[in-house]
Amino acid sequence: MLSALSVRPPAGDEFDGDCRLMRQPQVVDLFHQRFEELWAAVDPWNGERNVLAERVLRMLAAGLQDEQIAAQLGITPRAVRRHVAKAMADAGAETRFQLGVLYADRYRARSHPGNSGVRHP
User: Fold this and answer.
1) 31-35, 40-44, 51-55: segment of lowest average pLDDT
2) Diameter over CA atoms, the chain
3) Are 103 and 87 in contact (CB under 8 A)?
4) Would you state the pLDDT for residue 118?
5) pTM of this prediction?
6) Residue 75 has pLDDT above 70, yes or no
7) Where in the chain is the domain with CATH 1.10.10.10?
8) What sequence ranges are listed for the domain HTH luxR-type (predicted)?
9) What stretches of 1-121 adopt beta strand conformation (E)?
């Protein structure tokens, strides 16, 4: 749980490099909740996607190969690759493995609302 945050002055104020440190639990919780809402809004997995593409991504994240996914869904391996390529572009993933990890991490976060999917050191 967060215990403090630093806040820049509002837009329009002259920023001199100083930030305000907030420690009040209610204020910190409010900012944290708002951050999570904004973060979810920019999540590529929240965009429009059809049910078939969602199933392809779940199977990819589970480690299935294109041919296995195609056989289970009754589509061609080429169609699977098309769905994967579009998802990679949407998520900014450079590799299929990275896409699977990003999707699995985000899916876990959606399945467990208290977990934002953000890893803390």
Assistant:
1) 40-44
2) 60
3) yes
4) 45
5) 0.52
6) yes
7) 48-111
8) 49-103
9) 5-7, 20-22
